[in-house]
Specification:
This protein has 303 residues and is an alpha+beta fold. The protein contains 5 helices and 17 strands. The strands form 4 sheets. Strands 4-7-3-2-17-16 form a 6-stranded mixed beta sheet. The chain has a 6-stranded mixed beta sheet with strand order 8-10-11-13-15-14, with helices on one face.
């Protein structure tokens, strides 16, 4: 059920997604307090053991009008995807703020065995009219979330979740990667104050419930959750359902009691996550040089 919180500040521009607006400064120490012990090195694709797969989440900051004008053009972002696949061995990408044109270019550059699914962001006005968000660069098409994989995708579904009645709707999508007998779900959650009609409403708790509800024991799920990890000093920590960090462990979770992790934003905050109940064998965070978000790569055993 959608819960009301204390009144928030007035609605922000859809592009105002900087972490300094998401997270109280006082919790920064909590975010960086814990990190898994395995090294965050760039191991090549050849280092993958049988029965292992690498899944990445990356907010590409492809929508220039959302404060992304200084993060490089589409070709720079596509090259970053190529490096993550070719050097770091990523075989499944969960992408946010990706332009349809960049996604198509990446798929073409990576090869014919790569497949993708894409869902556009939609902005709804006060009269419930929806308009797809377009990327500013010529020929880039619409902006949204995507799943990109080195093998065919099946059972592609949009996960129903509470969304703002007006303003920006992001979304959750899932797909099956049959080659790895793996289900993946990609989410981009609503910022506080996303609904100008109800600026005090919180959507992330319901969206997190929906995301976790779509997962089973062979699912990797996450994305840009626009949320700090739960902690005593995080006033929004209540949004996290109980199964997170317990039934499903996070990529950078050092121990069962840990709720921290390395920063995934250039500002020093953590807002990006990958969860699974499968055995985790590694986690790394990469500054691609093409976004204000770092790419997070989960190495997990599926065999």
């Amino acid at each position: 059920m959608l819960r009301r919180t204390r009144p928030l500040r007035g609605p922000r521009s859809p592009g105002r997604r900087r972490a300094r607006q998401l997270l109280p400064a006082g919790i920064l120490a909590v975010l960086v307090a814990a990190s898994v012990s395995w090294p965050a090195t760039r191991e090549g694709a050849a280092a993958l053991a049988p029965g292992e797969v690498r899944v990445a989440t990356w907010n590409m900051c492809g929508v220039r009008q959302w404060n992304c004008q200084d993060t490089g053009d589409g070709s720079r972002k596509v090259r970053a995807l190529e490096r993550l696949a070719g050097v770091d061995g990523v075989r499944v990408f969960l992408l946010q703020e990706v332009c349809a044109g960049d996604l198509a270019a990446a798929r073409s550059r990576l090869g014919s065995n790569w497949h993708s699914t894409f869902t556009a962001y939609v902005h709804r006005d006060a009269h419930n009219r929806g308009t797809a968000v377009r990327c500013a660069a010529h020929g880039q098409g619409t902006a949204g979330i995507a799943i990109l994989a080195s093998s065919p995708l099946s059972r592609v579904t949009a996960v129903p979740a509470q969304q703002p009645s007006a303003g920006l709707r992001r979304g959750i999508i899932c797909a099956t990667v049959a080659l790895h007998r793996l289900r993946v779900c990609n989410a981009h959650l609503s910022l506080p104050g996303s609904d100008p009609a109800h600026p005090g409403w919180e959507f992330r708790d319901d969206q997190l419930e929906s995301l976790m509800g779509a997962a089973d024991g062979r699912t990797v799920f996450g994305g840009d959750l626009n949320s700090a990890p739960p902690s005593a000093r995080n006033r929004s920590g209540w949004i996290w359902p109980r199964g997170f960090f317990r039934r499903f462990q996070e990529c950078d979770q050092a121990s069962p009691s840990s709720r921290g992790g390395r920063a995934t934003l250039a500002s020093g905050h953590k807002a990006d996550y990958l969860f699974t109940a499968l055995p985790r064998t590694g986690c790394s965070v990469h500054d691609t040089g093409a976004s204000d978000h770092y790419a997070m790569v989960l190495r997990t055993k599926t065999g």
